[in-house]
């Protein structure tokens, strides 16, 4: 059994990774400010510490209570549109606080660090699957802030020997198949829960941002990776960090357009989805699809949920059972 610190472990992806670590028999400590996370998303089997990464005194007390077998870092702001309106907020909240965490890990002798990065590093990658060799060209301050943390981790390894895994997620989606965790952002900005809520009549008609992208149906195409598959990827990379740092794209290798998501929700729920066309949203590339081949070859990881309807089924089941999200 190993012991891990998970920052942002009360959030969407972080809480699912906490479940995966616990299922694997590990000891987990969640450090979260609850700014965007939910206390009830943290399983009882995990230890919870309410704290802010900007509070370095608190952070250092936590890290001093070792030993730690690794730190997994999820705490961040993550709204592309908001970052386009307030870029310095994202630079300070994501990059600046990330630098402080990395520095603290180095000083406390942490040897392994897993970072929640993003496909938003690739601003205009075209319609081919994106490999790790695709040039980084962030289309938003959000993507830029994540890349700055990746660069800090590069230097932390080169100078101090902190081994890290930068996992560049594509679109995390779905919910724990056993119903233990789900997606509850406030405000909600992810497409699948928004479409589900529109179908259930819990929100007004959905607005699709942009109908004139250079894609098959004119709407944005994204690679939707199930959050449980994403969580398994974090566990899969940990053994590699005993020897070297790694960077991987995490996705399924296939994309679905915004309209295809609407069609999938309609199939799964049997409900009509009211929607309307809207203008493009600043910072949104037409197509982001991962090539996960390098991760698969290095770890043996492979996505279990490769059909969009299966992903939507888990999201719908949790959303239906939790109409108020974690407030239920």
UniProtKB/TrEMBL annotation:
- Cite a single GO BP annotation: galactose metabolic process
Reactions the enzyme catalyzes: UDP-alpha-D-glucose = UDP-alpha-D-galactose
Recite the UniProt keywords alphabetically.
Carbohydrate metabolism, Isomerase, NAD
Q: Which residues form a coiled coil?
A: none
| Top EC class for this record | isomerase
Which family would the database say this protein is a member of?
Belongs to the NAD(P)-dependent epimerase/dehydratase family.
Identification of the protein by name: UDP-glucose 4-epimerase
Q: Which organism is it from?
A: Acetobacter persici
The uppermost taxa in this organism's lineage are: Bacteria, Pseudomonadati, Pseudomonadota, Alphaproteobacteria, Acetobacterales
Its gene is galE
